[in-house]
Specification:
heterodimer; A: 110 residues; mainly beta; five-stranded antiparallel β-sheet; 0% helix; globular; B: 114 residues; 11 strands
């Protein structure tokens, strides 16, 4: 079953703009992770935020976590064409390994 | 270090056949997980192996099985293939002991069942 749900399902922005994706989940978690996937290839880990953390940064990425609302957001600043990909949130904490949402497909227009 | 490798990268089979997929984790990683990705169901956890033992299992029928060898390499097997088994099968390895920790994914094996 899908634990995380990303929103929006698709997002198209101009290069240089910021992109924000949201993730909601249903049960308690140990951590929440964001991954990127380019065109049906393997997933690349972007960032992991633990349940006792509220915000984390990595380069142009900023992730927030609100456990009271069971939600997280991923912000990509100053987007580039190479950021075009699908982005997935994944929650850890259950017996089913990482549970992934269906992803947000991000398109960066040149 | 070399990344996670999966072989073969592409596979075409017919219904009723069986298939074996292989995964070599990053050197030093002892946890190997398998995921199935389809357009309809998204990414779904199949199972996880740690030190040659299946430690976690997703909600898949018994036709899906796996094993891990002493060098941490892993294989998954699907018997009696069905059309719905067509998917991208992803293997991931982890340095840590928890299946929830950062996963390093391979490029996947794209299986098509005709």
């Amino acid at each position: 079953s899908q634990q995380g749900e990303e929103d929006p399902q698709a997002l198209s922005i101009q290069e240089g703009e910021n992109a924000t994706m949201n993730c909601s989940y249903k049960t308690s978690i140990n951590n929440l992770q964001w991954y990127r996937q380019n065109s049906g290839r393997g997933l690349v880990h972007l960032i992991l935020i633990r349940s006792n953390e509220r915000e984390k940064h990595s380069g142009r990425l900023r992730v927030t976590l609100d456990t009271s609302k069971k939600s997280s957001s991923l912000l990509i600043t100053a987007s580039r064409a190479a950021d075009t990909a699908s982005y997935f949130c994944a929650t850890g904490g259950g017996a089913d390994g990482l549970t992934f949402g269906k992803g947000t497909h991000l398109i960066i227009q040149p | 270090k070399a990344g996670v490798t999966q072989t073969p990268r592409y596979l075409i089979k017919t219904r009723g056949q069986q298939v074996t997929l292989s995964c070599s984790p990053i050197s030093g990683h002892r946890s190997v997980s398998w995921y199935q990705q389809t357009p309809g169901q998204g990414l779904q956890f199949l199972f996880e192996y740690f030190s040659e033992t299946q430690r976690n299992k997703g909600n898949f029928p018994g036709r899906f099985s796996g094993r891990q060898f002493s060098n941490s390499r892993s294989e998954m097997n699907v018997s009696t293939l069905e059309l719905g088994d067509s998917a991208l099968y992803l293997c991931a390895s982890s340095l840590e002991t928890s299946v929830w920790d950062t996963q390093y994914f391979g490029p996947g094996t794209r299986l098509t069942v005709l």
